[in-house]
Specification:
The chain has about 400 residues and is of the alpha+beta class. It has 3 domains: about 45 residues, no CATH class; about 190 residues, no CATH class; about 120 residues, no CATH class. It has 6 helices and 22 strands. The strands form 6 sheets. It has a 5-stranded antiparallel β-sheet. A 5-stranded antiparallel β-sheet has the order 13-12-11-8-14. A hairpin with a 5-residue loop joins strand 20 and strand 21. Helix 1 crosses helix 2. It is elongated, with a radius of gyration of 36 Å.
């Protein structure tokens, strides 16, 4: 049978296409080898075109990343009571999420070293939280330090004040941090962000593996910081501090997990008050050593106060008696941080060190109070038209 020829007349094109398809599909038709080869090539081209067009319409999925929010965690080859460790990730490390397990709290991840394995999603925090920490580090990188504090135990850095807020980085016990700001937060407040669901596990293997992980991580637990808040409880205000660590990471820490690293010679003068911050004002020579003189801020020894400090004291060093003495004290302040140090020219007194306090008045407005330090004397610096504060008169006791 003769082969079919394609006419140049465009009106015959549909007919010829139909004949071509009929030749390929009809079992009664016996074309020549050349016809079969041409039909096969035609079908392959059509199929390739369809695959190509469908591929052009597809959009590649954006990779999902997360960050390790625990000191360290093991990757496992599968989710079961018994498993093999396929890798180890550490705090702050970025991992790529490859798969979410249905109805279970595990995700499969890949590290930058190419290690892959399953990990509980509660050990991770998302990209948004990481970005917030980066923004805070940039915003507060040059903010002056108000004091240096030490971590009493391993402690989390939170993105906002509050026990239920997201956290990422961890401080180790005895790590030193710089105190920047203080805020209060309700201990029993619900989470402000969408918390990761704590799904009940009905799978026995899942429960057993969780228990095993809990035993492995007991030494890294932070009970005071991670206790779940109870709904319907009264408001209990706690102090939180914005801190900056040695790696310049910035975050919020529960205040009771820190203590201010004030010199012991000054701490003994606290008289039951809480030392909030301290600043070196001057340095004096005492025989073969140099001794610093301090401005110290104090408050009542409790959380949730509406001010940062209520009392200031200046401690100077007596070179004859080799001890600290109180050169200045002022009480009853509604003081707010920060406190700033500086210098100023005061005519005949010369160039003196200064410090500026910020206090709230009866209307809740902040005003600045500047002081000059001419060792060992501290005096207020009055602005234009400002009246000196009234002197306190003590009633004298009459002898009988």
């Amino acid at each position: 049978m003769s082969s079919i020829r394609v006419s140049a007349d465009s009106r015959n094109a549909p007919v010829l296409f139909t004949q071509h398809c009929y030749i390929c599909l009809s079992p009664m038709y016996k074309p020549a080898v050349a016809d079969l080869r041409g039909s096969l090539i035609f079908l392959i081209l059509v199929f390739s075109l369809v695959v190509l067009l469908s591929g052009c319409g597809a959009v590649s999925e954006k990779p999902e990343y997360a960050y390790v929010a625990e000191p360290e965690a093991a990757l496992r080859d599968h989710v079961a009571t018994l498993y093999n460790k396929t890798g180890l990730v550490h705090n702050g490390e970025r991992v790529q999420i490859l798969e979410h397990m249905q109805n279970k709290r595990f995700v499969r991840v890949r590290t930058s070293r190419g290690e892959e394995g399953w990990i509980q999603d509660r050990y991770l925090t998302d990209q948004e939280t990481y970005d917030q920490f980066q923004q805070m580090a940039q915003k507060f990188k040059d903010v002056p330090t108000q004091a240096v504090a030490v971590a009493r135990r391993p402690v989390n850095l939170h993105v906002t004040p509050g026990r239920k807020s997201e956290h990422l980085y961890q401080l180790n016990e005895n790590d030193k941090v710089e105190l920047l700001q203080r805020q209060t937060a309700d201990r029993n407040a619900p989470a402000t962000a969408v918390a990761k669901p704590d799904k009940p596990d009905k799978d026995k293997d899942q429960k057993d593996s969780d228990k095993k992980d809990a035993k492995d991580k007991d030494k890294d637990s932070e009970s005071d910081d991670d206790q779940a808040s109870k709904p319907g409880q009264p408001v209990i205000l706690e102090d939180w501090w914005l801190v900056r660590d040695a790696q310049k990471r910035v975050g919020w820490v529960l205040g009771r997990l820190l203590y201010v690293d004030v010199p012991i010679e000054i701490a003994t003068y606290a008289e039951g008050q809480r030392i909030v911050a301290f600043f070196a004002l001057d340095e004096v020579q005492d025989e073969d050593k140099k001794v610093l003189e301090y401005l110290v801020l104090l408050s009542d020894n409790k959380d949730g106060l509406p001010y940062d400090y209520s009392q200031v004291r200046v401690f100077t060093w007596n070179v004859r008696r080799h001890r600290y003495e109180t050169a200045y004290r002022e009480r009853g302040l509604n003081g707010v941080l920060p406190v700033t140090l500086g210098r100023g020219n005061f005519g005949k007194e010369g160039d003196l060190r200064t410090f500026t306090l910020r206090v709230q008045d009866e209307n809740g407005s902040n005003r600045e109070l500047q002081y000059k330090f001419n060792p060992p004397i501290v005096r207020r610096v009055l602005g234009p038209g400002e009246e000196p504060p009234p002197k306190l008169h003590r009633k004298s006791r009459r002898s009988r």
